[in-house]
Specification:
Strand order of the largest sheet: 1-2-3-4-10
Largest sheet: 5 strands, mixed
CATH class of the largest domain: Alpha Beta
Radius of gyration: 25 Å
Distance between the termini: 39 Å
Order of helices and strands: HHEEEEHEHEEEEHEHEEH
Structural class: alpha+beta
């Protein structure tokens, strides 16, 4: 009886292999390359660049270290990497389109830190690097660390409070008065705000501005009444401003500095990677970007999907790993249903080889990388997590640690 079952089982397996498409012959076990491997370092660099390029709000993220990596070699050559990256924010806004390596990381006690999960397909022989999906969860450094390191430093506050909106308006008025731009600019949103007592209350803001249709040749009493230019014509900018009040001298000092960015032409998904690569290759600090792909056969790559979620500051002294777990528990230790977010971390690219029909009666093969659900098991390599790009005691204690093996 056991022999019969074995024969039937073996026959079923052989038939299954014979009927499966080539992609199913891929190894089911994911590899665990070292976190300091050159290919892994390159995949992490490109993935983070594409994450930053895909975003339209917030600050450019910088790599702190590679926390975990799994690799899935592909039948069509190349590999899909499943990356977990420890990241921190920088002083560059995503509108600047700067490379993360060219941006200054914020001081640790003012950082927003966290992790990004990313699935990226890399095929060096065909000069392709495509980010499939990503999900980043970030959080500001807890206030107790700020008070412990710098008790007199500015304290972060809610950017939408009226006093910070007023600070941004006064800073922008100074910019509009002194700049050589042909049109007035208006405040689009305030992205960061803080307060400090100097010789009186001092308010600091970072904010995004947009070009309006009002010419500077005509005096304007209220900029808010100016209509913004259309996106394909309007310049945008990122500003840092402050308003410092002196209680002793009864004076007010206003400062502002802005970077203005040229209008971005809309780019299709097919041309997005190539455009990004051309801009990166023209950078003074060339980072071995993949050149425009020249495909010997068509390759189907799904649209990049992802999101960045920022959690509120925590008053507890806990690591980021424990924090994300605590989001799923109530005080009575019962689980809390997960909160809805703007995107779901799920692979959208096709699995295996497919057929695409252009015209009735004609077909041509379309091959795509096999994208698996993001693996729950972390890297098995002892080299992961990798070395930090910069050593910082605050961030090191807050970012996740690799669970102990049991």
């Amino acid at each position: 009886m056991l022999l019969l079952i074995s024969v039937l089982f073996g026959t079923q397996v052989l038939c299954s292999w014979a009927a499966s498409p080539p992609a199913s012959e891929l190894p089911s076990t994911l590899l665990s390359p070292t976190c300091d491997d050159a290919a892994v370092q390159e995949a992490a660099d490109v993935a983070l660049r594409q994450i930053n390029a895909d975003r339209t709000e917030g600050y450019i993220l910088s790599l702190y270290r590679i926390f975990s990596v799994r690799e899935h070699p592909q039948e069509i050559t190349g590999s899909v990497f499943y990356l977990i990256l420890d990241v921190v924010d920088t002083e560059c806004h995503v509108l600047s389109k700067k490379l993360w390596k060219n941006c200054r990381v914020r001081p640790a006690h003012t950082s927003v830190y966290g992790q990004c999960k990313a699935i990226i397909y890399v095929n060096r022989s065909r000069k392709i690097a495509h980010l499939n999906t990503y999900e980043c969860i970030l959080q500001p450094v807890p206030p107790r660390y700020i008070w412990g390191v710098c008790p007199d430093c500015p304290v972060d506050a809610c950017p939408t409070e009226p006093k910070y909106l007023e600070t941004a308006a006064k800073s922008l008025a100074k910019f509009n008065e002194e700049s050589e731009q042909t049109h007035y600019f208006s405040v689009l949103n305030v992205t960061r705000a803080s307060m400090q007592w100097v010789i009186g209350p001092a308010h600091f803001v970072e904010f995004v501005i947009q070009e309006t249709s009002c010419s500077k040749r005509d005096p304007i009493a209220d900029i808010s009444k100016c209509e913004p230019l259309s996106p394909e014509l309007a310049h945008k900018g990122f500003c840092k401003g402050s308003v410092v009040n002196s209680d002793m001298e009864h004076k007010q000092s206003v400062t502002v500095s802005c970077e203005i960015y040229s209008p971005q032409d809309p780019v299709s998904e097919e041309g997005k990677l190539q455009t990004n690569q051309r801009s990166e290759e023209s950078s003074q600090n060339h980072q071995h970007a993949f050149p425009a792909e020249t495909n010997p056969f068509p390759l189907h790559l799904g649209k990049t999907v992802g999101c960045v979620k920022i959690l509120p500051p925590s008053t507890e002294d806990i690591s980021f790993h424990k924090l994300t777990e605590s989001q799923n528990e109530r005080e009575d230790s019962k689980p809390v249903p997960p909160k809805a977010i703007d995107c779901l971390f799920s692979p959208l690219a096709p699995a295996g080889e497919q057929t695409h029909v252009d015209k009735p009666g004609s077909t041509k093969p379309v091959t795509g990388p096999v994208i698996l659900p993001f693996p729950e098991e972390l890297s098995l390599s002892d080299s992961c997590p990798g070395e930090a790009k910069q050593i910082d005691s605050i961030l090191h204690s807050l970012l996740t640690r690799k669970p102990a093996k049991v």
